[in-house]
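Thread: Newbie trying to understand structure tokens

Hi all, I'm a second-year student working on a class project, and my supervisor (Dr. K.) asked me to get a predicted structure for one chain before our next meeting. I've only ever worked with sequences, so writing a 3D structure as a token string is new to me. If someone could post the tokens and maybe explain what I'm looking at, I'd be very grateful. Here's the chain:
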Amino acid sequence: MRTLIRHRPSPAMVVACLALLVALTGTSVAAVSALAPNSVGTAQIRASAVTGAKIRANAVTAAKIKNRNVTGAKIARNAVTGSLVLNGSLTRDDFASASLPAGPAGPAGPAGPAGPAGPAGTIGPITVRQASAVVPGGVAENGAYDTVTVGVNCNANEKAISAGTGWSDDAADRELWTQRITPVITNNAVTGYRGTGGNDSGNTSTFTLYVLCYVG
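---
Reply by user tm_fold:
Sure, no problem. This is what the structure looks like when written as tokens:
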């Protein structure tokens, strides 16, 4: 009958086994750490697992952000400063009402077209008031006219709008003429007229001044 002889492993054997175990373990870790390209998708990432500290600075660019995905609630207060806004990218519609100061007044524009004429006004009853004076004729047609001036005023509640003259002798060959008609102005309103007539006909004639007065 044979007798089995038990031998204890030598120290060298123990060290060799430990070295082999460590080598095999490192290979397994390396094998697990090495992931195939594009093998980790959204489904493989735990919710809230990717934080700001795990994202490399400047790694997220505008091209990687979905349009309209960044809202005001996702932007930190005072994070967007003037230096971060592109010149000319903001319009008046981007600002709150009345938040922009008014600019200086611009130059006056051209005059617009004339509007339609309004309805014609009405004038109250017109009264013809008159005054007359006799003008001697002197020597007929010698160039030395006899003249006289008469005046007519409207009543206190009236205004004068026009005036005219006439002669009692209306023969075509008589040297009778009206030298002038001037308005009488009171408190910036025409309240009457004065008229001057000249006679060189050789016959006496009556000069009359007529004034149109109305209540206005």
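A couple of things are worth pointing out once you decode it. The helical segments are 11-33. The chain has a mean pLDDT of 81. Feel free to ask follow-ups in this thread.
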